[in-house]
Amino acid sequence: xxxxxxxxxxxxxxxxxxxxxxxxxxxxxxxxxxxxxxxxxxxxxxxxxxxxxxxxxxxxxxxxxxxxxxxxxxxxxxxxxxxxxxxxxxxxxxxxxxxxxxxxxxxxxxxxxxxxxxxxxxxxxxxxxxxxxxxxxxxxxxxxxxxxxxxxxxxxxxxxxxxxxxxxxxxxxxxxxxxxxxxxxxxxxxxxxxxxxxxxxxxxxxxxxxxxxxxxxxxxxxxxxxxxxx
Length: 230
Known about the structure:
Blueprint: E1 12-18, H1 23-27, H2 40-53, E2 58-63, H3 67-77, E3 84-86, H4 103-107, H5 112-121, H6 134-148, E4 156-161, H7 163-173, E5 192-198, E6 201-209
Parallel strand pairs: 1-4, 2-3, 2-4
Antiparallel strand pairs: 1-5, 5-6
Helix pairs in contact: 2-3, 6-7
């Protein structure tokens, strides 16, 4: 997705984070391109993310165009006097027919159960019914960075997205194929990563820092939860 030639300009610093915990995260429902509100814990996670990035010289704050990311991104943008810039390429994976459904119902479905097993353990093989694959998400996530990052060379931006978007971008930054997913590091709600993006190169400087979240780590922030993806 990136231009093949290198860049002589200073890299763009990209602070990449996931939205705060939502009601459907707690209920273990697939959200996809629909929305549910942040929980009280999710709102506080977003506030802490905003505090964590308040001292960084952000020139822009981008988010997906879904409500849970915009609400989170507003907490990041406010200390800098910035407006959130929504972008459709940053949307979560389209969960298709699974949208609104809880994980147990999908797991117990005779056709969907094996697809969910692939999605959890071999995600590069799975296309969600009438939805997207992880590869689809990675392509549009990288397209977003290729489009936006060159405009902020030598500057810093925040990007608030979703679990699958963040994982797919980080896999590319770490030099992993999609078969390297899911990452062994688990990134909870509002964990933040830092990438240096320059031309065709992404250098990961921080992967899934959750120190600012502390005791508010939610269901999707523990390595023992295999279902907190999307």
